[in-house]
């Protein structure tokens, strides 16, 4: 996977949209983590992650799960966190944590491989090279090691009772696909995608948090719609007034809705 002219000409996650230096980006990622960390931690704990494990967290972002993993592996374990933008990870100081800055779509970072656990959450869905990257993530596992990948499948926003919320969500996924190449239904592929790579598929689950003014996922959508507003206007027929109405809906005290699910798939490399 090398940077060709085609790659350089295209826009990617973090170039403009979701840039780590944007005011609000850390708060947006922290809201996402608050919505989904409890489920991710449950799934990781069920795999048995514990003392002595060597873990790789790919696209670790603000590092809430990285920090949690570092607390699980004990003195003999290690957690490596990779991201193209490590500014949020640099805030975490933990003796078991090593941070590696690398753009996974253009380089093979100097990782030793042989991990007991490889984890990636809400990363592959945003990368056009997701199929090749999933191959790479599997290759980083030791025989008998575990992969946990989690991504979006928007299961519920199209049945929302609110027209503006439905339209804005549709516009946002279309705008992200047109700009950075996001696939908002990628999590839906996991049973087949893991089995095709020779993993023994051990589990699959979906987490579907409530969207309300006070819920982490409601806060996340408010910040995400604001971040994507210009791209929605430029790439779809969803109007700015519709985005405004969706933001009002998210702020109303009575709003209780559903939207994107996180689909987690976990499997084990034979051997
Ligand atoms: C939506 S955030 C998810 C963060 C974290 N995994 C979580 O769930 O809390 C996506 C992360 O993937 C990282 N990322 C995006 N493209 C990347 C690439 N090509 N190489 C490495 N990391 C990348 C971003 O910088 C960001 O931290």
From TrEMBL:
Listed SUPFAM superfamilies: S-adenosyl-L-methionine-dependent methyltransferases
InterPro entries linked to this entry: Methyltransf_12, SAM-dependent_MTases_sf
Gene Ontology terms, MF aspect: methyltransferase activity
Pfam families: Methyltransf_12
Span of the signal peptide: none
GO BP terms, alphabetized: antibiotic biosynthetic process; methylation
Ranges where the Methyltransferase type domain occurs: 56-147
Keywords on record: Methyltransferase, Transferase
Family annotation (PANTHER family): PUTATIVE (AFU_ORTHOLOGUE AFUA_2G14390)-RELATED, TRANS-ACONITATE 2-METHYLTRANSFERASE-RELATED
Protein name as catalogued: Methyltransferase domain-containing protein
Organism: Streptomyces coryli
């Amino acid at each position: 996977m090398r940077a060709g002219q085609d790659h350089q000409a295209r826009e990617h996650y973090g170039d403009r949209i979701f840039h780590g230096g944007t005011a609000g980006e850390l708060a947006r990622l922290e809201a996402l983590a608050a919505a989904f960390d409890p489920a991710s931690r449950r799934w990781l704990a069920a795999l048995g992650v514990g003392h002595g494990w060597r873990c790789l967290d790919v696209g670790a972002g603000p590092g809430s799960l990285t920090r949690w993993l570092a607390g699980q592996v004990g003195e003999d374990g290690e957690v490596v966190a990779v991201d193209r933008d490590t500014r949020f990870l640099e805030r975490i100081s933990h003796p078991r944590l090593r941070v590696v800055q690398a753009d996974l779509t253009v380089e093979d970072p100097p990782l030793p491989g042989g991990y007991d656990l490889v984890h990636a959450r809400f990363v592959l869905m945003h990368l056009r090279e997701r199929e090749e990257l999933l191959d790479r993530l599997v290759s980083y596992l030791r025989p008998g090691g575990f992969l946990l990948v989690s991504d979006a499948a928007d299961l519920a926003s199209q049945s929302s009772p609110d027209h503006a919320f439905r339209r804005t969500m549709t516009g946002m996924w279309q705008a992200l696909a047109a700009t950075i190449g996001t696939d908002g239904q990628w999590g839906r592929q996991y049973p087949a995608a893991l089995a095709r790579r020779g993993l023994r598929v051990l589990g699959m689950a979906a987490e579907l948090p409530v969207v309300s003014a006070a819920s982490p996922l409601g806060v996340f959508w408010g910040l995400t719609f604001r971040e994507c507003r210009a791209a929605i206007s430029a790439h779809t027929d969803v109007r700015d007034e519709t985005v405004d109405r969706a933001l009002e809906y998210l702020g109303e005290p009575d709003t209780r809705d559903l939207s994107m699910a996180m689909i987690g798939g976990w499997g084990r490399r034979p051997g």
